[in-house]
Amino acid sequence: MLFTAISFLYYFFPIVIVFYFIVPKKMQNVVLLIASMLFYFFGEPKYIFLMLTEILIVYMEGRLIAKYKKKSLLVIAIFIHIGLLCFFKYTDFMILNVNQLLNVNVSLLRIALPIGISFYTFQILGYVIDVYKGKVKPQKSFLKLATYVSLFPQLIAGPIVRYETIEKELDSRKHSFENFSYGVRRFTIGLAKKVLIANMLGELCNQFTGTDEKSILFYWIFAISYMLQIYFDFSSYSDMAIGLGRIFGFHFLENFNYPYISKSITEFWRRWHISLSSWFKDYVYIPLGGNRKGLKKQIRNILIVWVLTGIWHGASWNFVIWGLLFAIILIIEKIFLGKYLEKCPNFLKRLYVLFIVMISFVIFNAENMGEAWQNILGLWGANGESLINSYTLYYIRSYLVILMIAFIGATPLLRNTVLKLKKNEKINKLINILEPVWIIWLLLVVTAYLIDNSYNPFLYFRF
Amino acid sequence: MSDKVKNVVVTISFLFVIISLLIVNLIKEDILISLAERRKLQQFPKFSVEELFNGGFFEKFEKYAMDQFIQRETFRNLKINIDMNVLKKQDYNNIYEYDEKLIEQIYPLNEKSIENMTQKMNEINQKYLDQTNKVYYTIVPDKNYFIDNRHLKLDYAKLQHIMEENLNWAEYINIVDCLDLSCYYATDSHWKQERLEKVVDRIARYMDLKIEGNYEEKKVVDFKGVYAGQFPMEVGNDEIRILTNEVIDSCTVYNYEANKTTPIYDMAKINAPDKYDIYLSGAVPLLTIENPNGNQDKELIVFRDSYGSSLVPLLVEEYCHITVIDTRYIFPKILGQYVEFENKDVIFIYSTLLINNSVSLK
C-alpha cells in the first residue's frame, strides 16, 4: 500500500487513527503493529511471512548477541539478513552477469522484490550491530521490536530509522495537538510534493522517454526534470514518513535538507538521503578505518562505501557506476578540488554540484549504460537531433509552471520567507489562520489528483 | 490565532475531513456506470483467499475506492481546473479547449496503423471487389486539423500520401477544404450533419450523383458530446439537428445485429448516453437502407466509421439499396454471406481518428 492510495488516505489511515487514539496507551503499539502488518499485507501479501520471520530472527539475535557478546553471532546475523537481501534483490543480476561472463544460459529466477526489504534490512542490521557494540540494549519485548521494524510510516521508502532514535518512544511517547498538527502539515505537504510536483515531472519525463522526436533542449529539460522529480519523489516520502511518525508520537530524523543548494558533492551527500549516507558512514566507512589509516585506505573505503551505496539503489551496473561516479568525485574533492572550490563564487559551486548530480541521475534513471550514455550525449547534440522542435516547445509550455514551482520548492526560499514573516506577530497570526485552510485545501487538491488517476474514458463503449 | 489554537484547528479539521469522507464513502450507494467516461465503474471486489494472497483483492479495492469516491466528478473538475488554469497545462489527457470547442490532440502519426488500415481495405478489395465496382474513399479530418500550430498535429500530408500510395485501386475524394472547425460539434469529435452540404456536393461530383437535397433542418435534442464528460469545462452548447426530406423519410433501415427495422433517424436514441446514435442507430456492424424512391439500378456499399452515420443519409437519394458496414464490429470475411458486391458503387469513409488508431478494425 502506498501513502498516495485513496484506500490508504480515506480508509486505512482514518481507521488506524481512530483505533490508535481510542485504545489504552498500553495497547497503542499493538494497534501500530497490526496496522503495519496490514499495511504491508495490502501491498505485498505473500512476503508478510518473510518480514515476520526476519523480525523473529532479529529478536532472537539481539537477545543472544547481548547475552554472549560473541562476534560470531553478529557475523551470522549479518550473513542471514544480507543473504536474504542479496537473494531477493541481486540473484537475477548475478545470474545475468554469470551468463554473460561464462557464456552460459542459466535461467533467471524472476523473484519479485519484497517491498521495503532494503530499508528494513538496514534497520535490522543497524540494530544488531548497535546491540553488539552495546550502544543499545536488546529489546526484550517482541511486540516493540516488531513495531520498530515494521512501523508503517517508514516501512516501504524510509527514512532508515535507527533503533536508538525511537528506542525510548517505543516505550512511552507524548501525544499532543502540537505533534499531531506538525505531523498533519508535514504529511500533507509531502503528499502534495509527491502528487502535484513529482508525479507531474514524471509525466514530463515520460513524454521524453516515449518519443522519437527528441531535441537537444528536450534532453536538458528531461535531465533537469528527472533530477527534480527524484528529489521531490524521495523527499516527499520522507516528509510523509516523518509526518505520520509524528502523528503517532515518533520523532524520526530528517532525511533531506535542500540538497540542491549544496556547494560541493561532499555537502550534497550530507543533505541527500541523510539516513542512508550516515548508515554507511557509521556501519561501513568508520569500521573499515574511515580516514584514520592514511589516504590510500581512505580512498579504498570511499570506493567500497559508494559501490555499496550504488548497488543498494538497484541491481544493475548503472547503479554501480552511479555510486562510483560519486566516489571518484568525493575523492577528487578531498584530494584537491575542495580547496579550489572554496575560492569559487557560490553560484559556480552550486552550478558544479547541480551539473554533476544531473549527470548522475541521467545514469541512475537509465535502463542500462547504453541508454545513459545516449542521454548524456544527447545533451551536447551528439545524437544528431535538432536544437529544438515543436514537440519540445509544446511540452515546455505545458510544464513551465510546474517546473518553476519545482525550482523554487527545491530551495529553502519559501520556508525562509515564511519563517521571516512569522517573526512579525500580526503576520504570524494571519499565517496561523491561513495555514489550516491551506493544509485542507492541499489535501483536497491531492485527493482530486489521486481520484483522477482512475479516469479511464472509453470512447467506443457500447452500453 | 495563536500557535496553540492553530494546532487544534489543523488537527480537528484534518481528522474531520478524513473521517467524514470515510463514513460518507462507506454509506453512499455505489454507482454502476460513469456516463462521462462511458464505462462501468469498479464495484466492491468479491473476496476469495486466492485473490487476497495474490494481491488482486487490494488492487481491485483501490480501483473501487477511486471509482466510487463521493463527488468523484467534482474532484475531477477541480483537478482539471487547476491543471488548465493554474498550472497552465496545454491539454488534459490530450483534450484542450480552443475557441469554445473541445479538441482532441491526435498525435503522433501512427504509420503502422495507417498501413494496417490500408491492408484491411486491400483485403476487402481483393476478396469482394472487381471491375464492376466503382470504388472511392474519403478521409474525414479530425478537429485538430483546423487548429494553428500551438498544439501538436498529425502530419496529415503524410497520412494522405500513405493512403494514396497503398490504395491505387480506389479514387480518393478530398473533402478537407469542404470543412472547417464550425462544421464539428463543440463537445464531440463528430461533424454536424447540417454542415455537410459542401462535403456531399464534393462526393456527389466525384461519384456522378444527382442529389437535390431540399432538406428541412430540425432540432432534435440538446447534446453533450463525448468530450463534455471527459473535459468538463464550460464550452459552447451543441444540438443534434437532422436534415430530412421526403426521400429520407421514406427510407427504412434494417439492422442485422438487432434484427430490427427503424427509420434513418432513430428517435429511440434520444435517451441514449450518446445522442449522436440518432443517426443510423450509432455503432452497428451491418445495416441496409431501402429507398423506395431510388433508382432501381443503383446500389451503394459504404464502409464507414461513426462519421459515416450522419453523412450516409445525405447520399441515399439516388440509390435504391445502400449497405452500411462497420468492420470494427463485423469480420470482413463473413460479409459475403450478407452482401452482394457486384455492380455496386463502393465508398470507404474513415476519419483520421480511426485511421491513426485502427487496431479495432477486424
In summary, what is this structure?
Chain A has 463 residues and is mainly α. Chain A contains 19 helices and no strands.
Descriptive key words:
heterodimer; A: 463 residues; mainly alpha; B: 362 residues; alpha/beta; eight-stranded mixed beta sheet; 11 helices; 14 strands; elongated
How is this structure best described in words?
The C terminus of chain A is likely disordered. The longest helix of chain A is centred in the middle third of the chain and has 33 residues. In chain A, 74% of the residues lie in helices and 0% in strands. In chain B, helix 5 runs parallel beside helix 6. Chain B is an alpha/beta fold. Helices cover 32% and strands 20% of the residues of chain B. In chain B, helix 10 links the parallel strand 12 and strand 13. The model of chain B has no long low-confidence stretch (mean pLDDT 93). An eight-stranded mixed beta sheet of chain B has the order 6-5-14-12-13-11-9-10. In chain B, strands 1-2 form a two-stranded antiparallel ribbon. Chain B contains eleven helices and 14 strands. The longest helix of chain B is centred in the first third of the chain and has 25 residues. Chain B folds into two domains: 73 residues, no CATH class; 255 residues, no CATH class. At the A-B interface, helix 1, helix 9, helix 17 and helix 19 of A face helix 1, helix 3, helix 4 and helix 8 of B.
Residue share in β-strands of chain B: 15-25%
Q: What's the helix-strand series of chain A?
A: HHHHHHHHHHHHHHHHHHH
Q: Provide the helix percentage of chain A.
A: over 70%
Spatial shape of chain A: globular
**Average pLDDT value of chain B?**
93
Report mean pLDDT of chain A, rounded to a whole number: 93
Number of strands of chain A: 0
Biggest β-sheet strands, sense, barrel of chain B: 8 strands, mixed
Oligomer: heterodimer
Q: What structural class results from the helix and strand content of chain A? A: mainly alpha
Q: Widest sheet of chain B: strand order?
A: 6-5-14-12-13-11-9-10
Shape of chain B: elongated
Helical content of chain B, roughly?
25-40%
